[in-house]
Every structure is written in C-alpha cells, then in structure tokens.
C-alpha cells in the first residue's frame, strides 16, 4: 500500500494532476521519470561513466537477438570482415536461459562456440546441475565478438559467484579484450558488481520483473564504445539510447512503478553495500509494499 500511494503521488506531481495511465510517453513528465530511473540505477549499481543505461519496453528475452545483431555487426564493422566470413561468439550454457540464448544466436547465423555445456557434467547428462570448472572450458584460437553467460539460471538453480566468469584465474590472453555479455535478469541489484568485472563487461541486461519493477520493462547497461549506428541493425543500442525511450508507445505505468521501486531501494541502502544481498532487498520491499 505504501508503494502504491507513492506511485500515485509521483503521477500527480509529475503530470499536473493527470492519472497514472494518462501521462504521454512523449511528455516532459515521462522523460523526467525515465531520466530519474537511469540515474537511480546507475547509483545502485555504481556503474562507471563509460556505460549508458537504457530502459525500454519488452523483456530480457528480446536481448537474445539484440545482443547478437549489435555486437556481431559491430565486430564486422571494426574488423572489416567479408559477408561470408564467420563471426564467432562464445557461450557458456549452464541452464535453460543461456541455452535459449545460444540457440537464438545460431538461428541468426552466428558461429557459436559452446565454451561449456553443463549437461555433459550432470549425473544423467540431461540436467543442469553446476558450473563446470574453468579448466574444462573450450576456448578456441578464434577471436570472438563477445562472451555470453547467464549469471543466475533461475529454472535450474545455478548461479555464478560475484566475479562471474572471470573467477580467480581470469580469461585466456586472446580473450582479454573481448566484451562480456551478462544476463542478470534474476539477480541484478542483489550484490555488488566488482570493478574487475566492470572493466571487462560490454553489456548487462535483464527484465525488471525480478528486482526492479513489473514485467514489461527491460534494462540494458551497455558500454559506450559498443554503441554504433548501423543501418543493418533494426534495434541498435545507439538508436535505443537516442530515442530516450520514445520508440513505440511505452507503458508509462510500468516506468512509474520502476521509478518507485528504484527510489525505494536507494532510500533503503543506496549503493553503499549491495553485498548485504537479497535478504535486505526482500525486507526493503516488504516494508515498502505493506
């Protein structure tokens, strides 16, 4: 009830008395809401200044294709590859969601190298049970456009440690400059992202429905040097950012709920120690909702 009343107050204050569902997505009031959401999330994540934060409609599933179209085509642009030249992407398949992402990349014509498939290390060779030791990962001699993994596989109960795929030993030298793509749909804002990982990350994405707001809202944190205007890419990160969330008719109600939840999180613990984890987040949400 507390968060609901806060949402209603936000709507009234930002829209000169209009209701939550009456605010135009092209209005200055909505742009203010979108900008505040970006600032709050940057503060909570301690995201470096060389990253852009994009809120958009849709879910994290859309990024399975968007990541490939953006990063593969940028790789082609930078390396001046021929159309017939393969472009590799490395995927860690540790659960249902990373499997779906790898399948989508293959469907789009990307040369997918499976660094590891947890199926092969399970007791029945069919289930996802753990993350195989890094010494077993199959790094090739190729230079991939990106390395992809899902930080927390909710369906299978498999989660990486705070350091992600870097672990203790890091990655091979021929992969040191390869951007890392992380699906954090289910555990974003539950722990700190270490500086060591920020230095390697290219894209972090996730649906908002787990820890930031209702379904239908998606967040992408993308490194600025990976944002290029490319005519061949229908949903480029650069155009998403330039559109200031105005592409399509946005569900303003969803944005307002996201803003309320982010501001509530900031008031509870800010960016000072997300390592306190999900228990604190649950308590903050409970206090806000009840």
From TrEMBL:
Tagged with keyword tRNA-binding: no
Aminotransferase class V domain boundaries: 4-230
Cofactor dependency: pyridoxal 5'-phosphate
Keyword annotations: Pyridoxal phosphate, Transferase
InterPro entries: Aminotrans_V_dom, Pser_aminoTfrase, PyrdxlP-dep_Trfase, PyrdxlP-dep_Trfase_major
One Gene Ontology cellular component annotation held by this UniProt entry: cytoplasm
Annotated metabolic or biological route of this protein: Amino-acid biosynthesis
MF-aspect GO terms: O-phospho-L-serine:2-oxoglutarate aminotransferase activity; pyridoxal phosphate binding
Coiled coil: none
Reaction catalysed by this enzyme: O-phospho-L-serine + 2-oxoglutarate = 3-phosphooxypyruvate + L-glutamate
UniProt GO BP: L-serine biosynthetic process
Entry keyword annotation includes Zinc: no
Gene3D superfamilies (UniProt xref): Type I PLP-dependent aspartate aminotransferase-like (Major domain) (3.40.640.10)
SUPFAM superfamilies recorded: PLP-dependent transferases
Protein name: Pyridoxal phosphate-dependent transferase
Originating species: Phakopsora pachyrhizi (Asian soybean rust disease fungus)
């Amino acid at each position: 009830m507390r968060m609901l009343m806060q949402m209603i107050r936000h709507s009234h204050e930002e829209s000169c008395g209009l209701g939550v569902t009456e605010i135009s997505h092209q209005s200055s009031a909505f742009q203010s809401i979108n900008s505040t959401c970006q600032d709050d999330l940057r503060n909570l994540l301690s995201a470096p200044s060389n990253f852009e934060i994009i809120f958009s409609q849709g879910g994290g599933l859309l990024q399975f294709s968007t990541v490939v179209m953006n990063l593969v085509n940028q790789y082609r642009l930078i390396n001046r590859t021929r159309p017939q030249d393969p472009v590799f992407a490395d995927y860690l398949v540790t659960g249902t969601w990373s499997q779906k992402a790898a399948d989508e990349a293959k469907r789009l014509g990307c040369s997918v190298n499976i660094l590891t498939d947890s199926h092969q290390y399970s007791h029945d060779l069919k289930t996802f049970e753990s993350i195989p030791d890094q010494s077993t990962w199959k790094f090739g001699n190729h230079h991939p456009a990106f390395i992809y993994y899902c930080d927390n596989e909710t369906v299978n109960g498999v989660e990486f440690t705070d350091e992600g795929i870097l672990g203790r030993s890091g990655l091979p030298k021929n992969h040191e400059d390869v951007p890392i793509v992380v699906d954090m749909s289910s555990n974003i804002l539950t722990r700190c992202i270490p500086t060591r990982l920020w230095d390697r990350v290219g894209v972090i994405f996730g649906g908002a429905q787990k820890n930031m707001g209702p379904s239908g809202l998606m967040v992408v944190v993308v490194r600025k040097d990976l944002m290029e205007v490319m005519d061949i890419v229908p949903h480029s990160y650069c155009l998403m950012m330039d559109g200031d969330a105005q592409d399509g008719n946005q569900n303003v109600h969803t944005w307002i709920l996201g803003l309320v939840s982010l501001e509530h999180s900031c008031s509870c613990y800010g960016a000072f120690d997300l390592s306190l984890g999900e228990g604190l987040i649950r308590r903050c949400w409970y206090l806000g909702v009840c």
